[in-house]
Design a protein that fits this description.
This protein is an alpha/beta fold. The protein contains 6 helices and 5 strands, in the order βαβααβαβααβ.
């Protein structure tokens, strides 16, 4: 039974498609949606100490993405918007475990096979390590 759907969002086109797919599944199963944005501090952390202004800007961007996802949910579907900071793949898995999600629906970044192998892929990492099924939307 699918009761809790975790939807990591990043504002990309495939992320938006994942949100739409998750909404459809929530309507079918009567599930609640949990939108998760992870501010990737690893990409921002050029200096040893991040300024408050930089972190505030990163969080503000995340809230905008979360609000867009939340605003697309029809009346009657329970949803929550969560903002975390950290390494996206690890943070998503930590939240999945805490939530005890029944399904993760996430977008693919559309990396080519070679780029995916060389750079690593958040979706591939999640697929290999999640405790629940993962639907990757292209």
């Amino acid at each position: 039974m699918i009761k809790k759907i975790l939807v990591p969002v990043d504002g990309s086109e495939t992320s938006d498609k994942a949100v739409a797919e998750a909404i459809t599944l929530a309507e079918i199963y009567g599930a609640e949606l949990h939108f998760l944005y992870v501010a990737n501090i690893n990409q921002v952390a050029i200096n040893a100490a991040l300024s408050h202004a930089i972190m505030d800007a990163v969080r503000k961007a995340g809230r905008t993405i979360l609000n867009r996802a939340g605003n697309s949910v029809p009346e009657g579907i329970s949803h929550e918007e969560i903002l975390e900071t950290g390494a996206p793949a690890v943070t998503i898995l930590d939240y999945e475990e805490t939530l005890e999600a029944d399904l993760i629906v996430m977008g693919s970044r559309g990396l080519s096979f070679v780029k995916g192998v060389l750079m690593g892929s958040v979706s591939q990492y999640i697929i290999e390590r999640a405790n629940c099924p993962v639907l990757v939307v292209k």
